[in-house]
From TrEMBL:
The gene is sbcB. Residues 362-477 form the ExoI C-terminal domain. This is Exodeoxyribonuclease I. It comes from Candidatus Nanogingivalis gingivitcus. Keywords: DNA damage, DNA repair, DNA-binding, Hydrolase, Magnesium, Metal-binding. It catalyses: Exonucleolytic cleavage in the 3'- to 5'-direction to yield nucleoside 5'-phosphates. InterPro entries: Exodeoxyribonuclease_I, EXOI_SH3, EXOI_SH3_sf, Exonuc_1_C, Exonuc_1_SH3, Ribonucl_H, RNaseH-like_sf, RNaseH_sf. The keyword DNA damage applies. It comes from the Bacteria. Residues 200-353 form the ExoI SH3-like domain. SUPFAM superfamilies: Ribonuclease H-like (SSF53098).
Length: 481
């Protein structure tokens, strides 16, 4: 029997590579959203090689010390996730989990010698993200649900916003302690019930779209068609939704799509170098008034994109999107008549991939190198042996890995969860890594700490967390820094 497992994380910061899971909450339900078993709410120990984001802790109000006192080690937590939470036939579901929570989970499993991907697909498992479901329901079938807005103080306009805590508030759903993982799980289940009740047809349709084979039937290069696409990349003015068109293959058998709201004409004379500069522009460059982003996006089939054929669009939908069948036909024809534009885009994207691959190779931190390559079958057997080994076995366990990342990763794994197994030489290597990692994180940490400390109207609880952060820094800071 398939089940949903709703889950949410609170972390030490935003980067899945550098930051750590501090709180994990979850609730299993059946497909009718009835709870199965008790809710899960646990802490995970923060290790002494990590400096948490002070801003993040001001929101979550979880101190590093509390996780050390009450939390599981990473190795214990990873095992619990594999054996009790993300079990066979489980649909893992969250709110923006595809881009955030799932990435943190992948890096957790990587650090702790589990396959980073199997928990999302093997033995009937899958994943789904309610954020893009909310976006498409709001855009196409908003009836029966109260939708939150925020006021643009400069223009006086109301801007659509889909924050979970605002959705619950607008619809009379109890949701105290927003940004507490368990409170967010409870709130998300109620929002999911609301959508399933008010718009069951689109709910059930998008549930099927979590399978990439179903997405590929709608979006592909063999039989390209315009399609409706809801994504955070698109403008809030149009409910984060547009009509897009597949134009070229992308890395990992994905596809590049063009936003058909945008006329291709101004881009036809762009060479690949200008395109490359555009798609690799920094955040600061993108904020400049004259910056015009290229209207392309990589659609990743395994990220549960919210897509549908254009025949779902009603007259009201077309008006809201400020589009028409005639406009999209015109723009598709322009793309077809100028194949060099697509060729230049593909060349520019290849340059971009090469650039980022070189940067990845220069990153010596094995924990950040999850996406360098897949683990081969022989090493899969060895990593299973690592995670199944107890402290006594790990003390003298040095497998001959094929993957050059794994020996150092094993040292870090032992240091965090089985510290007593380290030899004197291994302790020295670990301390060297710990010092370098803290040195790397320290400048941003100090800058953020000053900013947080200077905030007005900090609550008593936030002031306490601030004191705990300072104590954490004092306790883990190496003597030679």
């Amino acid at each position: 029997m398939k089940t949903f497992f709703f889950y949410d994380l609170e972390t030490s910061g935003f980067s899945p590579r550098d930051d750590r899971i501090m709180q994990f909450a979850g609730q299993r339900t059946d497909l009718e959203l009835n709870p199965i078993g008790d809710p899960i709410n646990i802490l995970v120990k923060l290790n002494d090689d990590v400096l948490p984001s002070p801003s993040a802790l001001m929101v979550t109000k979880i101190s590093p010390q509390k996780t050390v006192q009450e939390g599981y080690s990473e190795a214990e937590f990873a095992k619990l996730c594999q054996e009790s939470f993300f079990t066979e036939d489980t649909i893992a579901i969250g709110y923006n989990n595809i881009r955030f929570d799932d990435e943190h989970m992948r890096y957790l499993f990587w650090r702790n010698f589990y396959d980073p991907y199997e928990w999302q697909w093997k033995d009937g498992r899958s994943r789904w993200d309610m954020l893009d479901v909310v976006r498409m329901v709001r855009a196409l079938r908003p009836e029966g649900i109260n939708w939150p807005f925020k006021l643009n103080e400069e223009t006086g306009e109301e801007i659509a916003i889909n924050k979970l805590e605002l959705l619950t508030k607008e619809n009379g759903i109890e949701h105290e302690n927003a940004h507490d993982a368990l409170a967010d799980v409870v709130g998300l289940i109620e929002v999911t019930k609301l959508i399933k009740q008010k718009q069951p047809q689109i709910f059930n349709y998008l549930l099927k779209m979590r399978q990439k084979t179903n997405v590929q039937k709608i979006v592909n290069l063999e039989d390209p068609k315009p399609f409706v696409y809801s994504s955070g990349r698109y403008l809030a003015k149009y409910q984060k939704t547009t009509v897009a068109f597949p134009i070229a293959p992308a890395k990992n058998k994905n596809v590049i799509v063009w936003d058909l709201r945008v006329d291709p004409t101004p881009y036809i004379d762009w060479d690949f170098q200008k395109i490359a500069e555009n798609i690799t522009a920094t955040w600061e460059e993108r904020q400049k008034e004259n910056f015009v982003p290229l209207p392309i996006k990589t659609l990743q089939y395994n990220r549960c994109p919210a897509v549908a054929l254009t025949d779902v669009l009603t007259k009201d939908n077309w008006q809201m999107l400020e589009l028409s069948p005639e406009i999209i036909t015109k723009h598709i024809q322009l793309l077809a008549n100028n194949p060099h534009l697509v060729t230049n885009i593909m060349t520019a994207l290849e340059q971009k991939e090469s650039f980022y691959s070189e940067n990845e190779a220069r990153n010596k931190n094995v924990e950040a190198r999850l996406y360098d390559s897949f683990i081969d079958n022989k090493d899969k057997i060895r990593i299973e042996a690592v995670r199944n080994a107890g402290a006594r076995e790990l003390a003298d366990f040095n497998p001959e890995f094929n993957d050059e990342r794994l020996p150092e990763l094993l040292l870090h794994y032992k240091a965090r969860s089985f510290n007593k197994t380290l030899t004197i030489e291994e302790k020295e290597k670990w301390e060297k890594y710990r010092v370098e990692n803290i040195q790397r994180m320290l400048p941003n940490f100090k800058k953020e700490l000053v900013e947080v400390s200077n905030r007005e109207n900090l609550t008593t609880e936030q002031k306490y967390i601030l004191e705990e952060i300072n104590l954490w820094l004092e306790n883990i800071l190496p003597d030679n820094i």
